[in-house]
Amino acid sequence: MADQARVRKFFFLHMRPNRLPVATLRFTHTFGLGGMSAVLVILLILTGALMMLAYEPTPDRAHDSILGLQTETLFGPLIRGLHYWSANLLIAVALLHLLRVFFTGAKDGPRKLNWVIGLTMLACVLASNFTGYLLPWDQLSYWAVTICTGMLGYVPGVGGWLQEAARGGRDVGPTTLIIFYTLHTTVVPVALALLMGFHFWRVRKARGVVVPRQAGTPVPADPEFTRGWPDLILRELVVGTVLVAVVMMLAIFFAPELGTPANPGMSPNPAKAPWYFVGFQELQIHFHPMFAILVIPLVAVAGLIWWPYRRREVDQTGVLFGSGAGRRTAGIAALLGLIATPLLIIADEMWLQTTTWAPSVISHGLLPFLILAVAVVGFRMILRKQLNATREDADQAVFVLMGVAFAVLTITGVWFRGAGMALVWPW
Ligand code: HEM
Predict the structure, then answer these.
(1) Co-location of 149 and 192 in the same domain
(2) DSSP bridge pairs for 319
(3) How far is CA 205 from the centre of its chain?
(4) 138 — phi, psi (to 5°)?
(5) Could you list the residue range(s) of the whole structural domain that residue 340 is in?
(6) Helix, strand or coil for residue 46?
(7) Is 17 close to ligand 1, i.e. is its CB under 6 Å away?
(8) In angstroms, rounded to a whole number, what is the distance separating the alpha carbons of residues 134 and 141?
(9) Is 417 strand, coil or helix?
(10) How far is the centre of ligand 1, averaged over its atoms, from the C-alpha of 293 (Å)?
(11) DSSP string computed for 290-302
(12) What is the pTM of this model?
């Protein structure tokens, strides 16, 4: 009773469940990744609000105001560092949280809608990072935003309009900075905060996180329960404190850089997108831009949204990797992605890109896209026929293959591209 009263009294405790299944407490079930994302969002809002006191969103003042924050403001470098690292870690942690949810079968059944809300939150996190990227107004940020907004121009029909709408004019300039600043400091955080409330409420509605179970065992009808306070909340406080300490260390020992002020007349070489969009930039090297920035991302996003709504053969809710066979097929897919993607990148770089027998949208767009789609369908059929994989395990393997391929594209873009975006050996 005393615990219940305590929970009722404190707002924070009220947001957490009173009771929860014991099995969901195990750290390696969730790795606390959802909670960590929430802590990072809170850190971002706090440090962002403080930085708003110093920042001036005009091309003349933006760079200088960040410089002033770094050199003349008490704790300025620490606050900027905390904001920078929280933002970058949030992308990584939210992606890992997505993978955890996916591989523990926590996206199906009553959690379908929360999966879609989560995807929308991920889009907000990316939008938040991207709009913040421009604000220091240095060479890196100016040209990265020029490249990314330039990609919008390739959308057929409305590309020019989209690009101008994002930039607020023909080029990246004062209006772009105001648009990005407003999105970054108001629109996106408000949307993210509202979605977070909804997300947490849906977790409560589904009676907490998914209960883990072994393949072949039924969904536990009456699992053993324990109290939210202190069993869950103390654990969450420990994870949150360790996370804040890690972000502090990163902010202190690896302070974010501030490059030379933006110079619209001189592009750095290579000019790269921020790391989380470099995978798309890399795709654009291999595919016609319409496929790299429109068709492939649209197919991927539609697939992710549709995933929990597809027809299911077996209920794998709560079963890690679906089954023993699921783990094996996921491993095969990961290996295939790791080997095939670099080989395809090199083959394209050395031979295929020079092909000019047809319009580029066919030779570098439709045709390679169809060939790869057929290869993926073939891979899925082999898993189904030769390895007797269930529909769920085969779908999971396709997800792994795509995820690993995109990760390899991102790594290639970040570390293995040099001047002129040519392939280089970084060491
Ligand atoms: C800012 C980003 C996010 C925050 C703050 C957040 C927060 C949380 C928290 C605290 C939980 C419960 C504890 C846990 O699972 O660790 C949770 C569960 C969940 N999240 Fe997220 N999340 C975010 C992004 C996402 C994304 C990107 C997805 C997937 C597309 C997602 C899908 C889900 C689902 C389906 C659950 C229920 C999991 C279960 O029942 O086991 N979330 N989230």
Answers:
(1) yes
(2) 213
(3) 25
(4) -105, 180
(5) 269-427
(6) helix
(7) no
(8) 5
(9) strand
(10) 27
(11) HIIIIIHHHHHHH
(12) 0.95
* Pocket probe mutation, ligand 1, options 108, 113, 199, max atoms within 8 Å of Cβ: 199
41 lines ligand 1 (CB under 6 A): yes
In a domain, residue 67? The reply is yes
Do 345 and 295 have their domain in common?
yes
Model confidence over 363-396: pLDDT tens digits? 889 999 999 999 999 999 999 999 999 999 999 9
Residue ID of nearest Cα to ligand 1 atom 39: 209
CATH number at residue 53: 1.20.810.10
- 310 and 177 share a domain? no
Is the CB–ligand 1 distance for residue 87 below 6 Å? no
CB 97 within 8 A of CB 37: yes
What is the Rg, in whole angstroms, of the alpha carbon atoms belonging to the chain?
23
Task: Name the token pair of 103.
Answer: 């591989």
Side-chain-side CA neighbours of residue 130 (13 Å): 20
407 and 261 fall within a common domain: no
Q: What end-to-end distance do the CA atoms of the chain give, in Å?
A: 62
Ligand 1 within 6 A of CB of 33? yes
Count of the separate structural domains present in the chain: 2
Residues 109 and 253 reside in one and the same domain = yes
Quick: pLDDT tens for 287-316.
999 999 999 999 999 999 999 998 887 888
